[in-house]
Please model this.
Amino acid sequence: METNQKQRSYFAKVYSRFSLRGLIFFVAAAAFFCFSVLPVVYMAASSFVSEQGAFSLENYKELLSFDERRRALLLNSTALGFGAACLSTLIGVPLGFLLARVEFTFKKLWRFVLLVPLVIPPYIFALAWVLMLGRLEPEIAYSLIGAIIVLGLCFYPLPMLAAEAAFRQVDRRMEEAALLAASPFRAFWQITMPLIAPVVSAVFLIVFVLSVAEFGVPGLLRVRVFTTEVFTAFAALYDIGAATALAVPASFVTLLAAIFAAKLLGEKTLIGRRQNLAAANSTRGVFRLALLAGAYIVLVAAVLLPILTLSSEAFAVRSLSKVVLDSAAAIANSLLLSAIGAGLVVVISVVLGYARSRAKTNRGWFADVVFLVIFAVPSTVVGVGIIALWNRGGLETIYTSQAIIVVGYLARFTPVAALIFGGIVRQIPHSIEEAAAISGANWLRVFGRIVLPNMKNGIAGVWLITFIFTFGELGTTLLVAPPGETTLPVRIYTLIANTPPSEVAALALLQIAVILLPLAFLILWRKPKKRTA
Amino acid sequence: MKTFIENRALFLLIGSLILNLACASPPNTGRSIGNDSAATSGEVTIYVSQDRVFSEPVLREYEKKTGVKVNVVYDTEETKSTGLANKLLAEKNRPQADVFWSNEPVRTLVLKKNGVLAAYKSPQAEGIPANFKDPEGFWTGFSARCRVIVYNTNLVKPDEAPKSIFDLTDPKWKGQVAIADPRFGSTSFHIAALYTELGEEKADDLFRRLKANDVKIVPGNSVVRDMAARGEVKIGLTDTDDVNVALQDKQPVAMVFPDRDGIGVPVMPNMVSLIQNAPNAGEGMRLIDYLLSPEVERKLAESEAVQIPLRRGVEPPRNIPPLASFKPMTLDYAKAADRLEDVTRRLQDILGL
Model:
């Protein structure tokens, strides 16, 4: 009798636990739907409506003809995305390994310096690239290869960060077991690499999407891709419907890439706990030297050269202090809006990522594809969608205030943050949650006391990356920004037209500096970890 | 303990709330349309595609003079973003702006065609020549820029510099000419004007020959200017204000007003328009009156923008000839605007853009 009652109360508990959990999932999903999905769905739907208000394929006519021009665009877009993702992975993963497994001096400083390209907006990177190579080697500077190199150098910090985290989390016991029988090289390729493959491939996909969706770099380097075509439809023809239709191929390529990756990898995870084993014994000799040499090369090519090029250009500026002082309000605004935006993105996406990672295989897989495809939608299309949805009675307080910029941040970056969290949560063994649940903790308690603390570093990392993304966001912000002082990138771009190149370079450096300072603080001044040798 | 029912009710409540937010209230209902000019709210919103460095002082001056708060959204250089015209198009059903100030005609004409603009004939527009005003009143021109040939004075002697846009096809300039992407901004206006003036056949031929002469297509007029200043090309096609920035910066460049005796110099006035269903239309009209005043034409002439006054009485900028001294390209703006899409597609084929 007593057991029966106990059992019943246990079930009631499970029931309430699951509905509370469901409620939180639902709120996060609804927020994601309103902020990110709805503008895209709205734009997609309205691209099928003619001027007369009837169903029409007019906007897709040219696309469906798939003539030579369209084929070349598709080829270029795919090659740019794939090339940049390959290059950034090839640079980033070895550097991640270096940071995770090799002992060397000034490691913290190295990690910080190697992250710098992430905060250089790709457009500014391309500007430096043109200043460096435009005259010497115009054939290379203005080419698809050039665009791949620029984007590869811009985005390698993402695979680097992910690979470092993954290499640290791989269960060292597995590797040690392999080492008993196999050479270090073989153990690395057959044990370690397959374990970090899901993380690396997820970041590969993110870089692929970022590159396919990038407009500034191919625009400046005169590479014809679908994003530049979308831009032409907007900026030359003012044809919003056609522009939206032209955004479809990039989403389609992303969809294919996502499906391919999912089929290839399945649902592997690298379960293991952080083992603070001395790293020194893992790599030495020629391999270590090669890695360090590589790091120096990357440092020169991706950090020193662009910054020095911009600096030498900025040296000619007439009044640097005026440039900085005039931008003070925009800087403060940018920092505040980005910090809030990144915080909200993290709150929503951490729940989405958790839900995704604990979902049934095919549902989770579907969520990944949705996240990626939404993320691949060009920022301008998202911007117009947001205006259409938010510029209406009742929402005016949001639309006519700075809050709409945060809405834009949420729309653009919730999907990618959720994708990353999905990967992070999968590394937390389900068993500890189950153990806590059986001991009687309700879901909220499990989530708050077990899941979140276990992914502390992940949350900080995602917040930081989102902050960097939001800080540099331009395409959506430009469209939705209300009157008055907005953000630093918007200010820079509104000033760029009739400003001498020296001042543009100075402003570009200013933008880099403003975001590097908090980054430097976070990375270099972090509480030193206790070491268990 | 929360029951299942309670939770489900909460679900429904939040769900319907969100749906409400997303789908409720069709655009532009239950909102007073402030078209009566008597209403003054002490606030006006203007979207400006004139460069911020030049437009901001003018608008701040107006604010100081009248005490009316001016909310401004600035545009970026047209080749770098999709710009304010798309924001105005997207907000068409529920406008936030009262006035649109464009620094070239194309965007204004596109907006007129799409029903974004309202007619307003300002009493201040009297001194402005009729060919720079829309007969229906949807836009009024003021202070203009010209399309000019810029050349590097270290590499090209003044008497060698090309005098006409047709000279740019001369083989001696092979690989030495830069123009901005002709699909965007003031270059798109220039090209639409050329097609209207020359007809399809001649204009197509001009661009085929430019292509054969290895013309460099670059992202913007400021890039054209910088390339000429650095000697990466000897000559380029750009705007008066862009060249003036380089002159102020003591760069080795000079400019030629092309075809001043032939087909005429392409003149691009600023255009100001009232927005259809503007929330503060009355204040919008007052601001338009101010922008069309001789005072503003003088200010823009004196600024680094070196804008040429359309009025006869206002002193032209230093180093720039007055409008009366050369033949402006005669142009039917509406016709040029109608050609825009067709011209864009033609140039994509001819120049391989």
Observations:
- Residues 57-167+195-312 of chain A form a domain with the MetI-like fold fold (CATH 1.10.3720.10).
- Confidence is low (pLDDT under 50) at residues 270-281 of chain A.
- The two ends of chain A are 54 Å apart (CA to CA).
- Chain A has two domains: 15-36+318-499, 57-167+195-312.
